Amino acid sequence: MRYSSSLNQSAFRLFAVxxxxxxxxxxxxxQQLVTDxxxxxxxxxxxxxxxxxxxxxxxxxxxMFVRALAKDVVxxxxxxxxxxxxxxxxxxxxxxxxxxxxxxxxxxSYYAVAxxxxxxAIAAPEVxxxxxxxxxxxxxxxxxxxxxxxxxxxxxFKKAIxxxxxxxxxxxxxxxxxxxxxxxxxxxxxxxxAIVTVGSYSADVYLxxxxxxxxxxxxxxxxxxxxxxxFIFQMAQKTPxxxxxxxxxIALFCGWLAAVVFRKS
Length: 265
What we know:
Blueprint: H1 7-23, E1 33-37, E2 41-44, E3 51-59, E4 71-78, E5 81-92, E6 95-108, E7 111-115, H2 119-122, H3 125-130, E8 141-142, H4 152-167, E9 171-175, E10 178-181, E11 185-192, E12 199-209, E13 212-225, H5 228-238, H6 240-264
Helix pairs in contact: 5-6
């Protein structure tokens, strides 16, 4: 795979992070975390089957020969926000039909969490809620039926969306997904499925010590279409009328061509 095979670039970035970490002033808490991402730009082509991104960094220890065991690292990757409508089906007169729905606004199209250990053991629930770390701590803002907020019905719709996202590998949680390499270096591999949404992503790395947040480092990540797919995507976004006309003409031509071929046969 193209994205996981750029080992030379990743190794150079990892070496640079280590060198920078060793030069950090020991007394400054705000500089105890240095991170980077292996490939900040992922191109989606017709053969795209998913990708793996590698986040790595360094945590300052008391000295360079002692691992920072009292510190935890949590990596959160968020995709572009989208509105999602969850519908409940019920069997009415022997037929399954939509019966009730709930729309949620600004839900991450992709959300992945990787941590050194279970996030519930890293920080208190109120801290995780404040920074929206973990599926259950994401803010689900209702777009309609706001009176359902906080009710059992609301929670059922919320759990249904999380379940579907997890099934499609768009919501991923990996306890132990962040691993230390030696005393200070760490790495986390995040899988992106083939159906991932194109757009701007954010990779946030949280450093916790004794349950308290010490530092946050952010790295941008971009997923964009490439080649002919990019041309079609941009046409559909910028000139939808032209895109629609061309699509109709192509469909008519294909229909005419099929009729001619089958008539001769």
